[in-house]
Amino acid sequence: MGNFAPYQVFSFMSTKEIPYKRLIRLALLTTPLFALFGSMPSFFRQPFNNQPNGHLYMIVMSFTILFLMTALLWSTNILILKFSEHAAVLKKNKLRYFTSALLAILVTLIMFQLIKLLFAPPPLPAAAEAIRLRSPRNLFIFPFVQSESINLIVLILIEVLLLQTERNAIQQENDQLKFANLEAKHTLLLQQLQPHFLFNALTTLKALIIKSPDKAETYLNKLTAFLRHSVNTTKNVMVPLSEELDLTTNYLEMQKVRFGEALHYRIEIPESIQEQGLVPIYSLQLLAENAIKHNILTLASPLTIKIEANIAETSISVSNNLQLKPSLEQKSGGVGLNNLSERYRLQGKPDIVIKKSPQEFSVHINVCKQ
To answer: How far apart, in whole angstroms, are the C-alpha atoms of residue 66 and residue 60?
Structure first.
């Protein structure tokens, strides 16, 4: 972005939608401002004939001329921009600038001829006429210098707006590519169904079949529901909070069969937010899985996972008592949390909030409205 050549800007815009509505709004805003500031010297200039209405006439005429000139210059440049979409020869900025400068001179000539026909200036006395005739350079060159100056400012404003539109388009495209890449990786992980998770689940199921067939049947039902949900929702980015809670509950129940009383969990989410809220798929399940994966679970020191809504019901926290495994004590965050944070950022939602104390670890995620 830092070393864009001028011709590259319009080359890019020729393949994208040019913001004509924004250009027209900018023209409507700046035209009276240019006319006002350009006519300010007339407020302090004394007319030649010193007539009572001569000063007012000079101010009105100056404002009118500059207003018409600026409006015509804006219209001319927007039409050149529109025409250059279909004329390959005008797609280079240098030629477009040169064409704009020539047309600005032509517009000034035509406009002054029309003003002479439509408005008759007040008669000047002989002394004033003599002064006017002795100063042809100021009287004839200054309007063209003024028109070219206004035209230059108009061109700069157009290029600034095109650059801003281009950068916004590139940023949006980059975000879409990042989001697509992130979702592709996420979908791949879901399709692979985390082999280590399936291996642990099947190993646990095999042990339960031998020791406790009733628990094995319950465990298998939870595993089936979890896998069915995984297959049916792999293409979704956001899911209803109620569905995500069902999935997370199935996952935690499976882990309780595995760890027994070494694992406790509590879910306190009002039904109102469950019915109306949306969260990224596998967000709560991921946070619960991280808590189990990173902490020690024993009967003497059970792990307690709490899933709660805040008072305003705009976010959900997943927290657990902190008893990290020795190999993870020096690590903070991870791929899963970074992935979840990036998914919120790319959707323009508030980022996740991570809080850690010696006794507790918690992650707060935003709940979107349906």
So the answer is: 10
Domain count for the chain = 2
Q: Among 155, 180, 205, give the residue marking a domain's end.
A: 180
Distance CA 43, CA 58 (A): 8
Choose one of 163, 180, 197: the last residue of a domain.
180
Range of the domain at 93: 6-180
- Per-residue pLDDT tens over the stretch 255-276: 888 888 999 999 999 988 888 8
Tell me: the pLDDT tens digits for 175-205? 888 777 766 765 665 555 456 677 878 888 8
Strand partners, 303: 263
Q: How far apart are CA 245 and CA 283, in angstroms?
A: 10
Q: What is the CA radius of gyration of the chain?
A: 36
Q: How many helices (H) and strands (E) does the chain have?
A: 13, 8
**Are the CB atoms for 273 and 367 separated by under 8 Å?**
yes
What global pTM score does this model have? Answer: 0.53
